Amino acid sequence: MTSSDLNGASLRQPSRYTTGMTPNLPILTRTLWGRGVPCPFDDILDVRSPGEFAEDHIPGAINLPVLDDAQRAEVGTIYKQVTAFAAKKIGAGHISANIATHLATHLKDKAKAYRPLVYCWRGGMRSDSFCHVLAQIGWRVTVLEGGYKTYRERVRVELDEAPPRFTLKLIAGATGSAKTRVLHRLAERGEQILDLEGLANHRGSLLGNVGPQPTQKHFESRLIAAFDGLDPARPVWVEAESHKIGSLQIPPVLWVRMRLSAGVEIAMPIKGRVQHLLTEYRHFAENPDTLRELLALMPERVGKRQTAEWEALIAAGQWEDFVASLLAVHYDPGYAASRAKNFAHADRPVPLAGPCPEAIDATVSELMKR
Question: How many whole angstroms separate alpha carbon 242 and alpha carbon 259?
């Protein structure tokens, strides 16, 4: 998590803590660690509710809520319908009980030298309460001033500033060309990669669902964290994706940068592509009803007759014929149109004999020469 002004820690003691003779005061910061610098804190503690945490959080943060979702809703309702005083009294009780739970669990074995960074929604009462207790115990606590809102603003800035700093090298190729395997093997051999499908938890097609996707905000947080670990002086390999990966949008500046970048096109024979897809999507053969439900979502241009033919092949267990037809009728025409429109610069063909590790390694060796 970085921006051009996020180099080193800019720390100060908050004035609202400085009355009296308190020996250990929480420290406020509006900055996080610099690009490529490891997190200097032992833990990043997000004290917002689980629902807020699920929507987005600083990558690597641990959720220690001082109010759970129901308690937060209760306090908010009392604040609006009764009085602020009544809401604060109820909230203080919940916060005290929850802090006690965290002290008896996650924080139980933390040594005196423990140094956490704490944040809530906007650096208000929730983080104040939590940090006051931790500081009184004797831990050196840093509070992110402005809370999650400060962090989110930095993400928005980085979404615009990070992509232009890097030279991207695209890996294009028709569906089933084992582009993701090639990308991961490049990483294993020391190349820099940006794994957009991994960050989005989706394989990037109608049949590409592999589980729950992060929210758009958390996808963007993951993306910036990934950029933060990359060296701008070295190229970064990335798959040529659609502007959407499942339900998630590739941020506009990155998408434009990808479209303008040069790259290669993996060329694998159709037989190898079919074999690769049968391996990668074998769960559909084990649960064909799920596949039929997804085929019903195909674009209207495919037509009911073609869909019926596919369903007949599925029913007969003719999986190789089904996959070959799906590629020829749906995926390959879509890829050709998308490549011509969006990735015309990824025009250097690189052969890949098949999806076996030896063939992938040979292709990766060829890419690393370029």
Answer: 10
CATH number for the domain spanning 351: value is 3.40.50
Q: Are residues 103 and 180 in the same domain?
A: no
Active site residues: 120
* Same-domain pairing of 176 and 149: no
Q: Which residue has the tokens 């395997």?
A: 181
Whether residues 150 and 173 share a domain: the answer is no
Q: Range of 112's domain?
A: 11-157
pLDDT per residue as tens, the chain (370 positions):
443 333 344 455 555 544 445 568 999 998 887 777 889 999 999 999 999 999 999 999 999 999 999 999 999 999 999 999 999 999 999 999 999 999 999 999 999 999 999 999 998 899 999 999 999 999 999 999 999 999 999 999 999 999 999 999 999 999 999 999 999 999 999 999 999 999 999 998 878 888 899 999 999 999 999 999 999 999 999 999 999 999 999 999 999 999 999 999 999 999 999 999 999 998 898 889 988 888 888 877 788 899 999 999 999 999 999 999 999 999 999 999 999 999 999 989 999 999 999 999 999 999 998 7
Q: Is-contact 44 60, C-beta < 8 A?
A: yes
- Name the one residue in this structure whose structure tokens are 């200097």: 40
